[in-house]
Specification:
The protein has helices spanning 32-56, 60-72, 84-107, 109-122. It is built from four helices and no strands. With 123 residues, the protein is mainly alpha-helical. The protein has a domain at 37-122. Helix 2 packs antiparallel against helix 3 (84-107) and helix 2 (60-72) crosses helix 4.
């Protein structure tokens, strides 16, 4: 008898891609120890972000830079343009600006307000 014919195509199910980051094993959400460890890692990463953003906002020169960066992202402006590619580009700029703004408001709302007052005073 002849060997079975092998298909010429390869299905996505034959060798599915591995979408996990690195070689880490998946987390078992039902395992309280793994859940606790992942929550600890997430809190640690969030704390590092907060400390980094707060450190960046400690000097007046840095706050001016961040203000100018936010202004260049046009976060409160209209992103519409007659060219759809320009509109998409503008929306991308706003997205980055809004992420920075959210990080500022989460990490150091007091220094964010100081930054706004400084810009109001300096024009």
């Amino acid at each position: 008898m002849a060997d079975p014919v092998r298909p010429l195509h390869i299905s996505a199910f034959d060798n599915p891609p591995d979408f996990r980051a690195g070689d880490k094993a998946p987390v078992d959400a039902g395992d309280p120890v793994q859940r606790k460890e992942k929550l600890k890692e997430a809190k640690s990463a969030e704390q590092i972000l907060k400390e980094t953003v707060r450190g960046m906002m400690l000097t007046e020169a840095n706050r001016k830079y961040v203000y100018d960066l936010l202004a260049s992202c046009n976060i409160y402006g209209n992103s519409f343009a007659s060219d759809p590619y320009k509109t998409a580009f503008n929306l991308g700029e706003q997205n980055i600006g809004r992420r920075i703004l959210a990080d500022l408001q989460l990490s150091c709302p007091d220094l964010y307000l100081v930054m706004l007052e400084e810009q109001k005073e300096n024009g």
